[in-house]
Design a protein that fits this description.
Blueprint lengths: L1 H17 L2 E11 L2 E6 L4 E6 L5 E4 L4 E4 L5 E3 L3 E9 L6 E9 L6
Antiparallel strand pairs: 1-2, 1-7, 2-3, 4-5, 5-6, 7-8
């Protein structure tokens, strides 16, 4: 537990000093709360919240579909996320937020 807490603290300190960064992430799991992703560039993982007003989450099929659109995100799909330090309530956490899906042409 202490090793993970130390890694989380140092990740927070890095993004707190560098500012918000965007990076490509790989979806490893779809959860009700959002997408579980790994960001290889920084060696971190986390959950990207997907607002229920905008996205339909299907845990059984492991997909997230944009409401009123054709965008479908599944396991192993690449997305771009924003990574930033979040110091609200003195919790020192790193927050991941969804920016966009990586297109086939960008791969």
């Amino acid at each position: 537990w202490a090793g993970r807490a130390s890694a989380d603290l140092h990740t927070f300190m890095y993004f707190n000093s560098k500012g918000a960064q965007s990076a490509e992430a790989v979806v490893t799991r779809v959860r009700r709360a959002g997408l579980q992703v790994v960001v290889p560039r920084y060696g971190i993982e986390g959950v990207v919240a997907m607002p229920e007003a905008d996205w339909d989450v299907n845990e059984e099929e492991q997909t997230v579909t944009k409401r009123g659109g054709k965008d479908v995100i599944g396991v192993f799909r690449r997305v771009v996320v924003n990574i930033e330090a979040d110091n609200t309530d003195f919790r020192n956490r790193t927050r991941l937020s969804f920016i966009r899906i990586v297109s086939e042409a960008e791969r």
